[in-house]
Amino acid sequence: MREFQEIRKQVKELSEYMKLRDANSLNEEVMNSKQVMELLQISEPTLIKRETEGKFPFKRFGKEKRYLRSEIMKYLKSA
Q1: What is the 3-state secondary structure (H, E, C) of 23-79?
Q2: Residues 22, 74, 35, CA angle at the centre, nearest 5°?
Q3: What is the pLDDT of residue 56?
Q4: How does pLDDT run across 47-61, given as a tens digit for each residue?
Q5: For 15, what's the count of Cα atoms within 13 Å in the CB-facing half-sphere?
Q6: What pTM does this model have?
Q7: Nearest of 28, 23, 13 to residue 59 by alpha carbon
Q8: Which of 5, 40, 58, 64 shows its CA 20 to 30 Å from the CA of 15?
Q9: CA pair distance 12, 29, nearest whole angstrom
Q10: Could you give the angle at the alpha carbon of 42 between the alpha carbons of 75 and 35, nearest 5°?
Q11: Is 61 in contact with 21 (CB distance < 8 Å)?
C-alpha cells in the first residue's frame, strides 16, 4: 500500500511538472522561490505568508516550489 501511495505521489508530481513545462513552452516563465523574492524584493517569511494566504499559487516538486510569473504579476496588478 505504501509503495502505491509513493507511486501515486510521483505521478502527481510528474503531471504538475508537465503542466509547468507546457506553460514554459508557451513562453510562460517558471520561477523558483529565490527569483520571486528577488523580483518582489521580499523576504522568505513574506513569501511563505503570501503562499499561505493563497496569493502566490505554486507547485511543489519534492522540496522545490515553482511559480508562474504570470500569476505573480496578476497578484501585483491586483495589490
Answers
A1: HHHCCCCEEEHHHHHHHHCCCHHHHHHHHHCCCCCCEEECCEEEEEHHHHHHHHHHC
A2: 65
A3: 86
A4: 999 999 988 888 888
A5: 6
A6: 0.64
A7: 13
A8: 40
A9: 21
A10: 80
A11: no
